[in-house]
Design brief:
Sua5-like_dom; Alpha-Beta Plaits; eleven-stranded mixed sheet; zinc ion binding; 4 domains; alpha/beta; ligase; zinc
């Protein structure tokens, strides 16, 4: 919806227009959908600046006339005093022309591209207070303003006006229209603005509105599993204290042991975690991994010391959490491995047999957005999965691309990056590309990113592994395809987040095709984007079983034993013939992957022989490990100009039952930390980056970062860009762009 242009204010500082200086100011970044134009209007009123402000092709354009010193103050305040949800960037200042008086908010103009698309934001304090107070929005589950509410999940097209969102289906009542048109109101041009008279409504069975909310809470208290439509899709909720309900949810979702997140009312946070953290209260409302309190039901996160917790991300979730008064299990409502459910009919069809009830609302979700996941590592929040509230992630590139590109990432933890000029935009988390629904969601996202930003890719960038679904999809498109080696992309992701610096990048993960045709995952790459070489690696391990290896830690543990001439522990290998197959190299591959060593260590300590979810063995190993001792590095030998770390001495230590399991797990971590520091010393690295999913391990990452810094080596771990495969698409853009600049 577009309101008429708004004018007002006194003549600038009481001066004649011909005595004023005039500037055209252009700001990019996140400046649309966050109350930035009303802020500019009020600031101009306050300082006596004449002119106008408007949205234009994804930027905010301002014509400002005032005395030169006033313009200096105005420009500084635009950046320093911007609304909390805004992230303005000054793009240009040039001479302007304005001969009128007062200050005006002009209509938006459409343009070819957009910048700074706003993410979905949790309710602000003002809206929460209004929702709790008597008034026309008392307990209204869709309250919002320019500082909060849905954005990315409801946008159909740009410019970001109500007519281009799913809120276009809800004509404004006179009271909401008056707020929308009033530049002094916090709902001025708040596109999702609504109230009970004109906005979305809840439904639970035959109940609507407040009765629907009450029916949902009653079902949860009765131990039922309820599918609740949120901002970016449906969640499945149940009472976290009802172990029978949690067990039913696990059975129905085929999720026997994978940790479950909790939705908490703010007043109960400390009942579930050892310490609160500021990141829990961010407007993005991520799932934050925090140390759990002793005594909680083990069924929530079996074998782990941390729990994923989140605070309500919408007014509806506030009403549910506060109304229930205790922790609710909250997990994405989808069949295992398939995309998140967003549509009412789809929810009732696909979740039949999983959910006992449904809390729907009639605000349509234009695009699914899953929860973000964040972990505090090295004292700061690091994104492990970018979803609602954080996506799309927008990054400045350390170069300017000659043509737009679409980078398709890998196969696991899929995310797509669209890049043009000196900017990259990274999609929300898509997940694993293991089935037809996931492939369809991937293709939709590839088209949607380009349509939404008004940028058409001229080149596709993929992983070099031809078996990945993303690579296969690229081969079906009528565009040039460039490939990037998996671990070069990991290295370039951490380098790109830190300006494209030269560094030694440890690229430790579970698997990825290397440039020599082997499976990598334990390499240290020296150089910079576009020019990486292997400086060191973990000794390669022969693994038997093909793709089954990642789901069977016992295979890695057995192979580690066989490599070192040690008989595996009794009961580890289910069939003696497998040793014969391993010896003969039948269905075997060589891998340097650090992730497989973590799998093997978990198996040798008896933590896990088979994995019910990705990374289970390493997660249990990290949780088990006590304080990390000082340790000697693994033996290092130079082979063909590459330092090779021999992990063989770890095997007898892991099998030494005179040592407590927590000590063995800690020694394993400590040896790898010491090895990383020694490799950095041997190659003379001044800067080190950590990349790859293994560095989601907080104990490993924190210890290695600390030891490197103690050795006066600058050390980085990606914060905005996930270190796991979700960061591959950004790394592919950086690697591709660097190659172009080197030609």
């Amino acid at each position: 919806m577009r309101a008429p242009a708004i004018s007002g204010g006194r003549e600038a500082r009481g001066q004649r227009p011909d005595a004023l200086a005039c500037e055209r100011i252009v700001l990019g970044g996140v400046v649309q959908g966050v109350g930035f134009r009303p802020f500019v209007y009020r600031l101009a009123q306050q300082l006596g600046v004449a002119g106008w402000v408007r949205n234009n092709a994804g930027v905010v354009e301002i014509c400002a006339a005032a005395a030169p010193e006033t313009l200096n103050d105005f420009r500084a305040a635009l950046l320093a005093e911007a609304p909390p949800a805004a992230r303005p960037e000054l793009h240009a200042v040039s001479p302007g022309a304005f001969t009128g008086t007062g200050f005006t908010i002009l209509d938006s103009t459409a343009g070819e591209t957009v910048q700074g698309l706003p993410p979905d934001l949790a309710p602000c304090p003002d809206c929460l207070a209004e929702m709790k107070a008597p008034g026309r929005r008392h307990r209204y589950p869709f309250i919002n303003c320019t500082q909060c509410g849905p954005r990315y999940s409801i946008i159909r097209a740009l410019p970001y006006d109500r007519a281009n969102t799913t809120m276009a289906e809800f004509p404004l009542c006179p009271a909401c229209a008056a707020e929308y048109a009033n530049p002094a109101d916090r709902r001025f041009h708040a596109e999702p603005v609504a109230c009970p008279d004109c906005g979305p409504r809840l439904r639970f069975g035959a109940q609507e509105g407040e009765a629907a909310l009450a029916a949902c809470l009653m079902a949860l208290r009765a131990g039922q599993i309820v599918a609740v439509k949120g901002v970016g899709g449906y969640h499945l909720f149940c009472d976290a204290a009802d172990e029978a309900a949690v067990a039913r949810l696990r059975t129905r979702k085929h999720r026997p042991e994978k940790p479950l997140a909790l939705l908490l009312p703010e007043a109960r946070v400390m009942d579930y975690v050892v310490a609160d953290a500021p990141a829990l209260h961010l407007p993005s409302r991520p799932i934050l991994l925090l140390e759990k309190r002793p005594g909680l039901p083990e069924v929530l996160a079996p074998g782990l010391t941390e729990l994923g917790v989140m605070l309500p991300d919408s007014p509806l979730h506030h009403l549910l959490a506060e109304g229930f008064g205790a922790a609710l299990v909250a997990t994405s409502a989808n069949r295992s491995g398939e995309p998140m459910v967003t549509d009412e009919a789809q929810a009732e069809a696909e979740l039949a047999g999983i959910a006992d009830g449904f809390l729907h609302h009639n605000r349509r979700i234009e695009r699914a957005v899953d929860d973000s996941v964040v972990r505090i590592i090295d004292g700061a929040p690091h994104i492990l999965r970018a979803g609602r509230g954080l996506s799309p992630i927008e990054m400045q590139l350390p170069f300017t691309l000659g043509r737009p590109v679409l980078a398709l990432g890998g196969h696991m933890k899929s995310a797509i990056a669209l890049a043009w000029g000196n900017k990259a935009v990274i999609s929300p988390h898509l997940g694993e590309l293991d089935n037809a629904p996931a492939h369809a969601a991937f293709a939709r996202m590839a088209a949607d990113l380009q349509a939404l930003y008004g940028v058409r890719a001229e080149v596709l960038i993929t992983d070099a592994h031809e078996g990945y679904a993303s690579t296969r999809w690229a081969r079906t498109q009528d565009l040039p395809v460039e490939t990037v080696w998996h671990h070069h992309a990991h290295a370039s992701a951490v380098a790109g987040e830190h300006g494209g610096a030269e560094m030694l990048a440890f690229t430790w993960d579970g698997v990825g095709l290397g440039s020599d045709g082997a499976l990598w995952g334990g390499e240290a790459l020296l150089g910079r984007p576009g020019a990486w070489r292997v400086a060191a690696r973990l000794k390669r391990l022969r693994l038997q079983g093909g793709d089954a290896v990642s789901r069977a830690p016992w295979r890695s543990g057995a192979a580690m034993c066989w490599h070192t001439g040690i008989t595996p522990p009794e009961g580890l290998v289910p069939d003696p013939l497998l040793h014969t197959a391993w010896t003969r190299g039948l269905n075997c591959h060589e891998s340097s992957a650090a992730g497989r060593l973590f799998d093997g260590a978990a198996a040798l300590l008896g933590l896990r022989h088979t994995a019910s979810y990705e990374g289970q063995g390493p997660a249990l190993l990290e949780a088990l490990a006590g304080p990390l001792p000082n340790a000697a590095p693994l033996p290092l030998h130079e082979v063909g100009g590459v330092w090779e770390a021999d992990w063989s001495p770890l095997v007898p230590m892991l099998l030494d039952d005179t040592l407590p399991n927590p000590e063995r797990a800690a020694r394993f971590h400590a040896a790898l930390v010491a090895t990383g520091v020694e490799i950095a010393r041997l190659v003379g690295a001044k800067t080190v980056g950590l990349a790859g999913g293994v560095f989601q391990n907080r104990k490993l990452a924190e210890a290695l970062l600390a030891r490197l810094r103690a050795a006066r080596i600058t050390a980085h771990l990606g914060r905005k860009i996930p270190c796991n495969d979700a960061g591959l698409s950004f790394g592919q853009v950086i690697e591709f762009g660097a190659r172009q600049w080197m030609r």
